[in-house]
Design a protein that fits this description.
Layout lengths: L1 H16 L7 H7 L2 E5 L5 H17 L5 E5 L7 H17 L6 E6 L24 E6 H9 L7 H12 L1 H9 L3
Parallel strand pairs: 1-2
Antiparallel strand pairs: 2-4, 3-4
Helix pairs in contact: 3-4
Protein name: DUF1415 domain-containing protein
InterPro entries: DUF1415 (IPR009858)
Organism: Chitinophaga niabensis
Length: about 180
């Protein structure tokens, strides 16, 4: 588990922060306020329960800014992973967490709708393991107050990935393993 967390931290440092895909991640990485939870179960039900447990952890620990729930042995098929994403988004509503937490999704085979599998833009969300990122909505709102034109972030990320190219983006991500 230590290696999985180290690889995930390396991916955040080199890809997410290094490519400035999330302009807010550097602060949390530097302040060490990201919690990493490695979940070794493989079923969707167990994954949902692990996700919910991390929401409860965030409820009880304000020192954690955000959580990466990592599934190194589960959801290798991207469509199965998308079913998990859908399930946890529904669970956020059912458990009264809508407006409190939101989920961002990352997967080694991430593919945006309408793109080809090898489109460099997919590497903006291609991680070293399938993972769910739990974010505090209040922190997002505060960060966005001081950030000019946050709506441009996805477009800027896609442009950056296209400029660097698929080979570079894949090499950068793979260097974290």
């Amino acid at each position: 588990m230590v290696e999985i967390i180290a690889q995930t931290k390396d991916w955040i440092k080199k890809v997410v922060v290094g490519c400035n895909f999330c302009p807010f991640a550097a602060k949390e990485l530097k302040q060490d306020t990201i919690h990493y939870e490695v979940v070794t179960t493989t079923g969707i039900r167990a994954a949902r329960l692990a996700f919910l447990a991390e929401c409860v952890r965030l409820d009880n620990d304000e020192s954690i800014a955000t959580t990466m729930v990592i599934f190194p042995e589960a959801f290798p098929v991207f469509l199965d992973y998308l079913n998990l994403v859908d399930a946890v988004e529904k669970m956020l509503q059912q458990e009264g967490y809508e407006g409190i937490y939101q989920v961002a999704s990352f997967h080694p085979l991430y593919q945006f709708a309408g793109t080809e599998p090898e489109d460099a833009a997919n590497y903006t969300n291609r991680s070293v393991y399938p993972m769910l990122h739990i974010l505090r909505e209040a922190q997002i709102e505060m960060a966005l107050l001081n950030f000019p034109d946050p709506e441009s972030i996805p477009e800027r990320n896609v442009k950056f990935a296209h400029e660097k190219g698929r080979v570079y983006m894949k090499m950068l991500r793979d260097s974290c393993l």
